[in-house]
Amino acid sequence: MSGRKPLLAPPEFGAPVSPIHPSSETLDLLATRRSTPVAMLGEPGPPADDLRDMLRLALRVPDHRKLEPWRVLVIEGAAREALGEAFAAALKASRPDASALELDEARGLPMRAPVIATVISSPVDDPKKTPVWEQELSAGAVCQTLMIAAQAMGWAACWISEWPAYDAGVAKALGLSERERVAGFIYLGTAKAEPVERARPDIAKKVQSWQG
Ligand SMILES: Cc1cc2nc3c(=O)[nH]c(=O)nc-3n(C[C@H](O)[C@H](O)[C@H](O)COP(=O)(O)O)c2cc1C
Q: pTM of the predicted model, to two decimals?
């Protein structure tokens, strides 16, 4: 468990929960957090207990009407090779002229990190008509919370889509239903090199005060 303190137990259902959590460590993480480009990821990956705990945290996200419109496929070890084969087969099906090199590249994509937590947006038909958009936003929240939880546990992470997230053959191989989509392949491992800071948004351009 990387020597970390065990996670707090989830509060009992209905128990009062503090609305705030002042934490300078959380602020430090958010002020400096950086994804690790997938090419910089390597072994080792998070062990089972870290994975279980980070996924528990990742599923504790805002979710309108408690629909739980997401699920996660953990792909690690030899299963990555099966995913690589599925990527190559999907590429061949959609582009029969793909070269051997392109097929090999496709096969190699999942091998770039020891663990891939594949977050699936899984919207449900809600009688109260919660928009699919809101359900998909919740899946995005799962992805980012997973990134943050992983980094707080000491694991490097990168949220990747690439073409396989949009490929029907890959969706079939992953067992996705018609309505499900890959929200993100969250590649998890250890950084082989330190990523450098990238350009960040200009707050003044992105945030305005709306006065009516
Ligand atoms: C939905 C989504 C899909 C992404 N897909 C890719 C991708 O396929 N390839 C890639 O290099 N970065 C992708 N990124 C960007 C990286 O995950 C990351 O956000 C980016 O490198 C910026 O790093 P930062 O998290 O340090 O700000 C994606 C981001 C999001 C939100």
A: 0.97
